[in-house]
Each structure stands twice: as structure tokens, then as C-alpha cells.
Amino acid sequence: MRILYRADGGHPIGTGHLFRALRILDRITQLGGVDVILAVSDEAAPRKILQNASFKIEWLPPRTDLESIKPHFKFDSIANIVEELRPDVVVVDMLDTDASEIKQITEKSIPVVTFDDRGDGRLLTSILINILVEEPYPPALPTSVRLLQGGPYVTLSDEFADESSVRIVPEPELAKRILVTMGGADAVGLNCKVAEALAPIREIERVEFVVGPAFQHQDQLIAILEKAEWESKILRSAPSLLPHYKAAEFGIIAGGLAMYEVCRCGLPSLFVPQPIDHQIELSEIMRRAGAVAYVGPGTEITSKDIRDCVESVIGDQLARTSMAANGVGIVDGRGTDRVAESILSLVKE
After folding, report:
1. Residues 6 or more apart from 237 whose CB is under 8 A from it?
2. Rounded Cα gap, residues 102 and 121, in angstroms
3. Angstrom distances, CA of residue 208 to CA of 64, 145, 253, 254, 333
């Protein structure tokens, strides 16, 4: 029995899809009895992230749509693999699929799983898993589509499943230690906008910026930090963000899974999403849940908007305490198990 998983990552689409694939396929491999294959474009970021993968990787030609901030699924990219291996299930982790592309899989009687999918291809899937977006009207989905949605299906790394991942310290009267992470690529340079916003705030003591392997604005960020009123550090490709979340007193976050990570840890945060619709939508969902602060998409708000919000929230102990409590209730860190078991259920069927 075989599972074929299609994902991509790198600049400017970020690396979250690759980490999700790595976690899910590692878990399925551990459960045993199924061969898994990841089909991914051959680029620097995937090579680095997947260098110790425990499963087979089919390296595809590099992406040609290098300016797109979303990965787009084309059946042609895996047509030869599907024909040769005849997988029992195909998983597409590439957002908003087209029905014409998904149909080329399902017409071979192969069930399909998609993630965070609002394209018309989702109507042909067997399982639709949404954690970054919400299905606008679930009753309209065909009865053949199984919808799994929200915090229970968030695929965080195993360390977040332990209760020790939750911060248990009382929120300080004034939050002085800030963690900033704008995703693995940060194609539009939001780290730099956040640094400019924070630079004149004298109440801050230290800011850590975590950037990924696809980040291309480091020189500009360093130049801004040299003028800041506080101590700073840039961490590139940190093995785990958990200790940094737990050491921080406030977060400024973009990127899908990182949004859930800070909620799980109970780190009160301001969301400054990249100009990607699912990040903007998730920010609004979390704001309505009282789990975060949010003033608008990162490319539409100004540095002053960010500064005003940060100055307000880092001095509001009650607001931060409420955010932390509400965030912890959204995700339990066990979503990888649930997703892996759901995919395996299709193989068994």
C-alpha cells in the first residue's frame, strides 16, 4: 500500500507545507504497513528541511512560478509517479486546488486528501482538512467529502503535545521580552517593518527575530536593529521555537502553524500576517476567539499601527492574561496523530 504526498516550499511560499508533510509522513511511517512517497520540487529549502527524512522522496524539476506566494497543484507534476506507482491515496498540500487537476487523480479511482482548500477541486476529495481556513458553508459539500477542521487537526511537532509546552508563569505587569517570527520566507520583508515599529519603544528590553532558510532581507533587518533602543538577536532556522516561545513575554507572529504554536504555548501575541488570504483569515478567526491581537494584514498596516498596538498590549496585563488562556483552549498539539490516522483510514478502505 502506498501514499503519495505532494508539497512544495521555499521562497516566497514559505516552508510550512514541508514541515507539515514531514510530520505527517514520519508519523505514518512509524505506524508501519504503508510506503510513503513525498513529491517535491528540487530546491535548496526542501533539500535542507528534508535531509533526514525517513521516507522516500521524489525530486521534481524546480518550480517555474517563482513569484507566486501560494503553491499551485498541477497533475502533470506527478503524472508519471502516479502511473508508475499506482498509489492508494494521493495527498495534495498545495492550497485552493482546481477541479480539472484533481479529477485526473480521482478518475483513476484514487482517493484524494487536500489541505486548506477552497478551490473547486475540494469537491472531488475524500478528506478535506482545514486548519488555516474555514469551509464557508459545510452543508454544501458533497456527502462523499469528509471535512476535518480547526484546532484538533493542527499538525504541530510532538513537543507541543506535552503539557509542559504551556507557559505557566503569570503575565508580567509590563511585557519587555518579545519574539518575532514572520514565517520561513517572509517574502515581503515584514520582519523589517516590525523592527522599525519596535525600534523607538524604550520599555522593551530584548527582541528575538526568528527567520527561516528562505529569508532574503537579513542585511536590511540588521541595519534597522543597529538603531533600536533595545537588545536584539537574529536566529536563523532555530531547531525548535518552543523554548523561545516560553522565554518570551509577547509575540509578533505571521505564518499559519506558528499562529497555532503561540496559542498552544499561551504566549499572548500580535498577528501580522503575510499578504496571503489564509493567514489573514486565520488572524481574524483567532481575534474573534480572543486569543490574539490583530490590526490588519502586514502589507496594509503601517509601522505606527504596529507600534501603537504593541505599546498598548505590552502594558495591559489583563488583556495578555486573557489572550493566553483563550489560546491554550484552541489546540492540544495532538493533531498530527489525528491527521495521520485519517489518511491511513482511506488506505485501509
Report:
1. 48, 211, 212, 213
2. 6
3. 34, 42, 12, 14, 24
Name every residue whose Cβ is closer than 8 Å to that of residue 232 and which is 6 or more positions away in sequence.
195, 206, 207, 208, 209, 225
pTM: 0.85
Which of 61, 101, 119, 23 is CA-nearest to residue 90? 101
For residue range 97-131, list pLDDT tens digits in order. Answer: 999 999 999 999 999 999 999 999 999 999 999 99
Smallest CA-to-CA distance from 90 within 72, 68, 108 is with 108
Extract the C-alpha cell encoding 324.
493566553
As separate numbers, helices (DSSP H) first and strands (DSSP E) second, the chain gives: 12, 13
pLDDT band of 39, cuts 50, 70, 90: very high
The number of CA neighbours under 13 Å toward the Cβ of 203 is 14
pLDDT > 90 in the chain, percent: 77
Greatest Cα-to-Cα distance within the chain, rounded to the nearest angstrom = 62
The cell for 194 is 516590525
What gap in Å lies between CA 166 and CA 65, rounded to an integer? 39
Report which DSSP code applies to 171. Answer: P
Sheet order of strands, 231-236 included: 231-236, 206-211, 177-181, 250-253, 269-271, 293-294
